[in-house]
Every structure is written in C-alpha cells, then in structure tokens.
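Researcher: I'm preparing a figure for a lab meeting and need a structural model of a single chain. I don't have an experimental structure, so a prediction will have to do for now. The sequence is pasted below. Please return the structure as tokens so I can convert it later.
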Amino acid sequence: MATIHHPPMPKATSPSKSASPPASYEAAMEELETLVARLESGDMPLEQLLTGYQRGAQLLHYCREQLQAVEDQIKVLDEGGLKVWKVS
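Model: Understood. Here is the structure written out token by token.
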C-alpha cells in the first residue's frame, strides 16, 4: 500500500505586525468595509482569506476600543465631571 505524503500546511500567519494601525476610526471602518467586500466576493485565495480575516479582526478590535473610549467619555460628561479624554 502506497503512503500518500501531503506537503506541510503553511503556518497561519499571526495578525500582521507590519500592518499599520488605522489613522482614525473612519479610516478603520472604510478599510474594514472594503475588506469585507473582498472577503465576500469569494475571489481571494485561501491564504489571503486568512490574512484578510485576521486584519479584519484587528480593525474590528480597534473600532470597538475607539467606541468604548467615546462611550466612557460620555459617561464622564453625563455625571457632570470633566477630565482629560485620552484615546489610545
């Protein structure tokens, strides 16, 4: 019986450390919308799908952080307090 040898699967790339953080929430949303359209098109090779998915997760995380920072600031303002607002 012959043994079938499969080439090793490529390692999943970690979320791209070289991918620059978005300039703003709006830039992240625009990139995310473009990326989702490309992913949904079905025209991307599997490796690019994985990389795109990882980048999308990064962008989504960034957007959620930005929205949370704004929500936190609104809570401070609603409570009548005023403190320095820092968005990371």
